Automatic annotation (TrEMBL):
Residues 75-262 form the Cupin-like domain. Residues 300-311 have a biased composition (Basic and acidic residues). Pfam families: Cupin_8. InterPro entries: Cupin_8, RmlC-like_jellyroll. Residues 300-325 are annotated as: Disordered. This is Cupin-like domain-containing protein.
């Protein structure tokens, strides 16, 4: 009986180990696959190779029509989306600012510095009901043994780039619903040259290196790695495997619908990330309003008051000359 019990325990441990290893597996080939009208089985087979793949599918037209930027502006302009400034590196405070969609569109259109983009819009999708259109039409993308999923919509001003980062989900699909985008990709083996930042508070795993304009202090290490440049037009969808680094550059009026999927074993494989995220949120207080140095305010106030006094003295000195006898 003990032998049978030990054998069962061994089989369970082996089963879990093999599945966890399967989900942690990566590929580092500098290749992007492209397939036309794949079957469901063919898509699963190619995605499990852990290489980026570009394709299209029949249901994409329905998703595009209900999630593209133009449609959202015409129907849900009063609902709030989250906006982020790519140049704001203060991660101790809230990195997203909620704005009504019409204000977001105005901000992105008037942004001449390519600084702002919108993401993490799950609440917007729920409030507007757009999430139902995604749920009804993404069966082709969903992997077997699906545990949980997340949808998002990304907008940005022209030439804005997202942080260079990676995802840990089992499947990560990005569908271009309007305009076009340019994506830089790097395999997981590049991590040793990218100084990864594990931001468990925002659940973002990024690098301070800007692949579009590499800073001088990172140039020596960045030259040791190679990036893939991919251009995605409207109607095309790309799968970016877990742990692959990517950064998206948006062309004018571009919008992207995002699909993130996890399976039960995927959640088990990334449980250290999930646990750290939970602990970090419990032990960290995120500032919703940025702090201001009171000493600087006092100095400014003193300087302004001294300027006023100087101005008053000058006016009092010149006023007698201007009197009319």
């Amino acid at each position: 009986m003990k032998i049978l019990f030990a054998f069962v325990i061994f089989c369970i441990v082996l089963f879990i180990y093999l599945h966890v290893q399967f989900h942690l597996k990566t590929s580092n080939d500098l290749e992007v696959y492209e397939i036309d009208d794949p079957s469901k089985d063919k898509l699963e087979e190619i995605c499990d190779i852990r290489q980026p793949v570009i394709f299209d599918f029949e249901e994409s037209d329905k998703i595009i029509e209900t999630t593209k930027k133009e449609f959202l502006l015409n129907h849900y302009h009063a609902f709030e989306m989250k906006v982020r400034n790519i140049n704001d590196v203060d991660y101790n405070s809230e990195i997203y600012m909620p704005l009504a969609l019409h204000s977001v569109a105005k901000l992105l259109n008037e942004d001449k510095t390519s600084s702002y983009f919108s993401e993490n819009n799950g609440d917007f999708l729920q409030e507007t009901g757009v999430v139902k259109n995604l749920q009804y039409n993404d069966q082709f993308l969903r992997p077997p043994m699906l545990s949980n999923y997340n949808y998002d919509i990304m907008l940005a001003s022209e030439n804005t780039t997202t942080p260079f980062r990676y995802e840990i989900n089992y499947r990560n699909f990005f569908l271009v619903t309007q305009g076009s985008v340019h994506i830089k990709l790097a395999p997981p083996s590049s991590s040793k040259y990218l100084y990864p930042v594990y931001d468990y508070t925002n659940f973002e795993f990024r690098t301070p290196v800007n692949p579009w304009k590499v800073q001088a202090k990172y140039m020596a290490d960045f030259d040791k790695m190679k990036c893939l440049d991919v251009y995605i037009e409207k109607g095309k969808i790309i799968h970016i495997p877990a742990y692959w680094w990517y950064s998206i550059q948006f062309n004018k009026d571009a919008s992207v619908s995002c699909f993130y999927y996890r399976t039960y074993m995927n959640n088990l494989a990334i449980s250290p990330y999930i646990i750290m995220h939970g602990l970090q949120n419990q032990n960290t207080k995120v500032e919703t309003i940025k702090k201001v140095d009171i000493n600087n305010l006092e100095k400014r106030a003193d300087s302004k008051s001294s300027e006023k006094e100087t101005t008053n003295e000058n006016s009092s000195e010149t006023s007698p000359e201007n009197k009319i006898d």
